[in-house]
Amino acid sequence: MASSHFHAAVWLDHHQARVFHFNVNDSDSQKVHPHNASVHIHHKANTIGSGHALMEPEFMKEVASAISVAGEILVIGPGNAKTEFMTYVEKHDPKLKAKILGVETVDHPSDGEIVAYARKFFKPVDEMLPR
């Protein structure tokens, strides 16, 4: 996705990623879905593992590609998906990792709430830059 916006935010869980490229006045959005969307697996007592399927590498690659054009990125979401994504980025795309300024837990906001949250996150950073 080509974008003229410097900032990006991605909210992701194991079922989808919602990507936003934005500035103060405008935003573009896109959704990325895994190819083999798994059904939520529940943890059973006395079993090994968390009960959650891991995210597909291809899904994480597509999410990384969707945010790669941004200059600064915020990664948000509930649970472990954002952590799994960051582990993927650290291993496969160190240049992208350098652009990620924050990784935060945010439950299930609307699209407008994601953009507002991200603008608030980047505002102090933007105010430090020379005009």
Kindly describe this structure.
- This protein has about 130 residues and is an alpha/beta fold.
- It has a single domain, classed as 2-Layer Sandwich (Nucleotidyltransferase, domain 5).
- The protein has four helices and five strands; from the N terminus they run βββαβααβα.
- It has helices at about 55-65, 80-90, 95-100, 110-130; strands at about 5-10, 15-20, 25-30, 70-75, 100-105.
- Strands 3-2-1-4-5 form a five-stranded mixed β-sheet, sandwiched between helices.
- The longest helix has 18 residues, at about 110-130.
- The radius of gyration is 15 Å and the shape is globular.
- The two termini are about 25 Å apart.
What is the makeup of the main sheet?
5 strands, mixed
Q: Which whole number gives the mean pLDDT? A: 86
What is the CATH topology?
Nucleotidyltransferase, domain 5
How much helicity do the residues have?
Answer: 25-40%
Architecture per CATH nomenclature, i.e. the level-2 architecture: 2-Layer Sandwich
Straight-line N-to-C gap: 27 Å
Q: How many helix segments?
A: 4
Instruction: Count the beta strands.
Output: 5
Low-confidence stretches: 39-43
SSE string:
EEEHEHHEH
Identify the strand order in the major beta sheet. 3-2-1-4-5
Task: From the alpha carbons, calculate the radius of gyration and give it in angstroms.
Answer: 15 Å
The H-level CATH homologous superfamily, spelled out, is: eRF1 domain 2
Identify the CATH class.
Alpha Beta
Global shape: globular
Tell me the structural class.
alpha/beta
How many domains make up the 3D coordinates? 1
**Beta strand %:** 15-25%
